[in-house]
C-alpha cells in the first residue's frame, strides 16, 4: 500500500508540474506585456478592489489550513474531524468564488471586459492607449478565470473525498486520495498567491 | 516446425472478454494499446488523404485542382492530423503502452484508469478535429500563427484548436503514466542501468510530454479565447504581439518533434541489437543521449523564427544551441552503427526498417543542421527544403521506426507471424517511394519553390511530378501492411513466445500475453541486451 501511495503522490506532483507549465504560459505573456505597457497595467490595476482581493487571499490561506488539517486527520484515523475540516475547506472555496463573482460583476458592468464593448475612460486622463489596457484585462480575465475553473474542480474533488471519507473508506493505512487532493488544493491556492500581487498591487496609488 | 495444438484455449488478454464493453472499459494496457492502434491508423489515413490531394494539385504548375483557400486547408489539416493525431501518439501510445509494462516486469502501468482516460481524451480531441474538418476545415497552417488564426481566418479554428487542446491532455497523461511506471514499478533486479533503451527513450519523451504540452495547451486556449471572447493577447490592434504567440507555440512544438523521434529511436535500439545478436555499443551513452536530447530540445525553439523578427543576437544563440542538440542524436547513430559492426546481422523486416531509419534519419538530421546555420536558413526557410527536412526525420525516421516496432512486436501482440515476404516487399515500396517523394523536394526548395503554395513556376514541374509519383509508391507501401497484418490475424503462423529469440522480459511471456502479464514477478539478473548468453535457437517460422 505504501508503494501505491508513494506512486500516486509522485503522479500528482508530476501533474502539478504540468499545471505550472500550463499557467506559466499566461505568466509569460503577463511578463512581456507588463514590461512593454507598464503604465497601462498600472491604470488597469487601479480598478481592482484590493480589499476584496486581500480577503480572498486570506480565505484561500485559511482553506489551505483546513485542508492540511483534514489530511492530518485522515492520517490519524480521525474520521469525524476530517469530514468537518473538508466541509470547512469547501465553504472557504465557495466564499472565494462568491467574492470573485462580485468582483467580476463590478468589472463587467463597468465595461472592463475586452471586446467591442470595452471602455476605459480613465485612460485619457492618464495619457495612455486604452487598447493596451484591454491587454491587461484580457490577462486578468484569462488568469483569474482559469484559476476559478481550477477552484471549481478543486471543490468538486474535495466534495468527492468528503463523501467517500464520510463512509469510512479512508484510514491511517489508506489516505492517498486525501493527500493528493490536498496537494492539488495547495497548488491552486499558491497560484492565487501569485495572481493577487501581480494583478491587484501594481503600483497601487489610490486606496481600495 | 509443428506447433502443438492446444485443446483448452489459454487465457490471453485478447480472449479475456469479448464484449464491446470489455474493450471500451478496459484497464488493461495491452487492450488500450490496441484501441490506440486502430484510432491512430484511422487518423493516419485521414492525414494521408489530405497529402494525396496536395500532391495531386502539385502535379501541374497552375493552381487548377483546388482554389488557394482550399489548398491552405489541405496542408493545414494534413499537418494537424499527422502531427497531433498520428505521430505524437504513435510509438508511445501503441508500442509504449503495450510493451513498457512487460519490459519492466509489471502487471500494468502505474495508473491504468488514467491510461484509459488518455485514450478517451484522444478520441474526443480527434472527433473535434474531424468534425471541424468535415464542416469546412481550417486554413491557418498547423502552426496557427496569429493574427490570422485569431482574427482574420474565417474557418473552424476554435473547433480544431479545442481538438488539439484535448488531445494534448491525452499526451500529458500518457507521459505521466510512463514516468511513474518506469520509476516505481521495475521488477526486482531491474536497475536503471539494465533498463532496455526503449524505456529510456520513452522516459525522455515523457519528460517532454509532461513539461512541454501544457504550454501549447494554454497557447491554443488563448487563441480560442481570442476568437470567441475577444480576450486579446495576440491582437496587434490592442498592442498585442504576434511574436509572443510564435515563442509560446514553438516552445512546445520544437520539443514536440523530439517527442516524435525519441520513442522511434528506442525502437531502433531494440531492433538493431536483436537482429545483430549483440549488445548495444555504448549503452550509457545512448541512454544519456536520450535525456540530453530532451533537455537541449527545450532550448532551441526560436530556430523556427530566424526570419520572423527576432534580433540577430538571439538568432545567433539559438543557432548555436541547435547545433548542440544535433550531437546526442549523432551519438546514437554512431552507436547503432557500431553495434552492427561484427554483429551477426539478420535481414528480417524490422531490421530493414531500422536500416532505412539510420540512413534517412541521418539525412534528415544533417539537413536540420544546415537549417540551423543562419546564412543557409535565410535562403531556404519557408521553401520545400524545410518540408523535405522534416519529412525525412518524421517519415523517414519516425514512421519507419514505428513500422519496425510494429513488425517486431506484432507476434507478441497478436501471437501471429506476419508474412515475411510481403512485409519485405512493403518495406521496399516504402523506402523507394519515400525517397522519390521527398528527395526532389530538397532540390525544389534550394531552387526556391516556396512551401504552402498551390501554384509554382513551370520549371519546377518535373521534380514535382517525380514527387507525386513517389507518393503513390509510398501509399502502396502503407496499404500493403494493412492488408497482410489483417490477414495474419486469421491465417498467420503461430508465433510462440519469442520468435526472434530476443532478450527482454517481454519475450518471456506467452504471445499474446495473459491479462496479468507474468504468472510470477520476474527477477532480473542479467544486463540489457545480453545476447552473448542467449542460447542460439532457430526462431519459429524461419
Structure description:
The complex is a heterodimer of chains A (208) and B (542). Chain A is mostly helical. In chain A, 81% of the residues lie in helices and 0% in strands. Chain A has one domain (2-200): Four Helix Bundle (Hemerythrin (Met), subunit A) (Up-down Bundle). With 542 residues, chain B is mostly helical. Chain B has a single domain (20-531), classed as Cytochrome C Oxidase, Chain A, CATH 1.20.210.10. Chain B has 16 helices and no strands. Chain B has helices at 20-24, 29-57, 68-104, 112-134, 148-152, 157-184, 197-229, 242-259, 262-276, 283-297, 312-340, 349-372, 374-380, 384-414, 420-447, 461-491. The longest helix of chain B is centred in the first third of the chain and has 37 residues, at 68-104. The radius of gyration of chain B is 23 Å and the shape is globular. The termini of chain B are close together. The model of chain B has no long low-confidence stretch (mean pLDDT 94). The chains are: A mainly alpha (208), B mainly alpha (542). The interface between A and B is large, with 37 and 36 residues.
Amino acid at each position: 500500500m505504501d508503494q501505491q501511495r508513494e506512486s500516486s503522490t509522485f503522479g500528482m506532483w508530476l501533474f502539478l508540474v504540468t499545471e505550472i507549465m500550463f499557467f506559466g504560459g499566461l505568466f509569460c505573456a503577463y511578463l512581456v506585456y507588463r514590461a512593454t505597457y507598464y503604465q497601462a497595467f498600472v491604470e488597469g490595476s487601479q480598478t481592482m478592489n484590493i480589499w476584496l482581493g486581500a480577503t480572498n487571499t486570506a480565505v484561500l490561506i485559511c482553506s489551505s489550513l483546513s485542508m492540511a488539517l483534514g489530511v492530518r486527520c485522515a492520517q490519524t484515523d480521525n474520521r469525524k474531524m476530517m469530514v468537518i475540516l473538508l466541509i470547512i475547506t469547501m465553504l472557504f472555496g465557495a466564499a472565494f468564488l462568491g467574492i470573485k463573482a462580485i468582483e467580476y460583476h463590478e468589472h463587467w458592468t463597468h465595461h472592463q471586459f475586452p471586446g467591442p464593448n470595452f471602455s476605459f475612460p480613465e485612460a485619457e486622463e492618464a495619457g495612455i492607449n486604452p487598447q493596451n489596457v484591454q491587454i491587461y484585462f484580457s490577462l486578468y480575465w484569462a488568469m483569474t478565470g482559469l484559476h476559478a475553473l481550477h477552484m471549481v474542480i478543486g471543490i468538486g474533488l474535495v466534495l468527492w473525498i468528503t463523501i467517500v471519507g464520510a463512509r469510512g473508506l479512508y484510514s491511517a493505512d489508506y489516505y492517498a486520495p486525501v493527500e493528493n487532493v490536498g496537494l492539488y488544493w495547495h497548488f491552486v491556492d499558491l497560484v492565487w498567491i501569485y495572481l493577487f500581487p501581480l494583478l491587484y498591487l501594481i503600483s497601487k496609488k489610490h486606496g481600495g | 516446425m509443428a506447433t502443438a495444438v492446444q485443446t483448452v484455449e489459454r487465457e490471453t488478454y485478447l480472449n479475456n472478454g469479448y464484449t464491446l464493453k470489455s474493450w471500451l472499459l478496459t484497464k488493461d494496457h495491452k487492450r488500450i494499446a490496441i484501441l490506440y492502434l486502430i484510432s491512430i491508423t484511422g487518423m493516419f489515413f485521414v492525414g494521408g488523404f489530405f497529402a494525396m490531394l496536395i500532391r495531386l494539385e502539385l502535379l501541374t504548375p497552375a493552381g487548377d485542382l483546388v482554389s488557394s483557400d482550399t489548398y491552405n486547408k489541405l496542408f493545414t489539416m494534413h499537418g494537424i492530423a499527422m502531427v497531433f493525431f498520428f505521430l505524437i501518439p504513435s510509438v508511445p501510445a501503441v508500442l509504449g503502452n503495450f510493451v513498457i509494462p512487460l519490459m519492466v516486469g509489471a502487471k500494468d502501468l502505474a495508473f491504468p484508469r488514467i491510461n484509459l482516460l488518455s485514450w478517451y481524451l484522444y478520441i474526443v480531441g480527434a472527433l473535434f478535429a474531424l468534425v471541424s474538418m468535415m464542416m469546412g476545415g481550417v486554413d491557418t497552417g498547423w502552426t496557427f500563427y496569429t493574427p490570422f488564426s485569431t482574427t482574420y481566418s474565417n474557418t473552424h479554428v476554435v473547433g480544431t484548436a479545442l481538438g488539439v487542446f484535448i488531445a494534448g491532455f491525452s499526451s500529458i497523461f500518457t507521459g505521466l503514466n510512463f514516468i511513474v511506471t518506469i520509476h516505481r514499478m521495475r521488477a526486482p533486479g531491474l536497475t536503471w542501468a539494465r533498463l532496455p533503451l526503449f524505456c529510456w527513450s520513452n522516459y525522455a519523451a515523457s519528460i517532454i510530454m509532461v513539461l512541454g504540452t501544457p504550454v501549447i495547451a494554454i497557447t491554443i486556449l488563448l487563441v480560442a479565447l481570442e476568437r470567441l471572447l475577444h480576450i486579446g493577447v495576440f491582437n496587434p490592434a490592442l498592442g498585442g504581439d504576434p511574436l509572443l504567440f510564435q515563442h509560446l507555440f514553438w516552445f512546445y512544438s520544437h520539443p514536440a518533434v523530439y517527442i516524435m523521434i525519441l520513442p522511434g529511436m528506442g525502437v531502433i535500439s531494440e531492433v538493431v541489437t536483436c537482429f545483430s545478436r549483440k549488445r548495444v555499443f555504448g549503452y550509457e551513452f545512448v541512454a544519456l543521449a536520450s535525456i540530453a536530447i530532451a533537455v537541449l530540445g527545450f532550448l532551441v525553439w526560436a530556430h523556427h523564427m530566424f526570419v520572423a523578427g527576432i534580433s540577430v543576437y538571439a538568432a545567433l544563440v539559438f543557432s548555436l544551441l541547435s547545433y548542440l542538440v544535433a550531437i546526442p542524436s549523432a551519438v546514437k547513430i554512431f552507436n547503432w552503427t557500431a553495434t552492427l559492426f561484427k554483429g551477426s546481422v539478420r535481414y528480417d523486416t524490422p531490421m530493414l526498417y531500422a536500416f532505412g531509419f539510420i540512413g534517412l534519419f541521418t539525412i534528415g538530421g544533417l539537413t536540420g543542421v544546415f537549417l540551423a546555420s543562419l546564412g543557409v536558413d535565410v535562403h531556404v526557410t519557408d521553401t520545400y527544403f524545410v518540408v523535405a527536412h522534416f519529412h525525412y526525420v518524421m517519415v523517414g525516421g519516425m514512421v519507419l521506426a514505428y513500422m519496425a516496432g510494429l513488425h517486431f512486436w506484432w507476434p507478441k501482440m497478436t501471437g501471429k507471424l506476419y508474412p515475411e515476404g510481403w512485409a519485405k516487399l512493403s518495406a521496399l515500396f516504402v523506402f523507394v517511394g519515400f525517397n522519390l517523394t521527398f528527395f526532389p523536394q530538397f532540390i525544389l526548395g534550394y531552387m526556391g519553390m516556396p512551401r504552402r503554395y498551390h501554384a509554382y513556376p513551370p520549371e519546377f514541374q518535373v521534380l514535382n511530378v517525380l514527387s507525386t509519383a513517389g507518393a503513390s509508391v509510398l501509399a502502396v507501401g502503407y496499404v500493403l501492411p494493412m492488408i497482410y497484418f489483417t490477414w495474419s490475424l486469421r491465417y498467420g503462423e503461430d508465433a510462440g513466445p519469442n520468435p526472434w529469440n530476443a532478450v527482454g522480459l517481454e519475450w518471456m511471456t506467452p504471445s499474446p500475453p495473459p491479462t496479468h502479464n507474468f504468472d510470477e514477478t520476474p527477477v532480473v539478473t542479467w544486463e540489457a541486451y545480453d545476447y552473448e548468453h542467449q542460447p542460439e535457437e532457430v526462431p519459429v517460422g524461419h
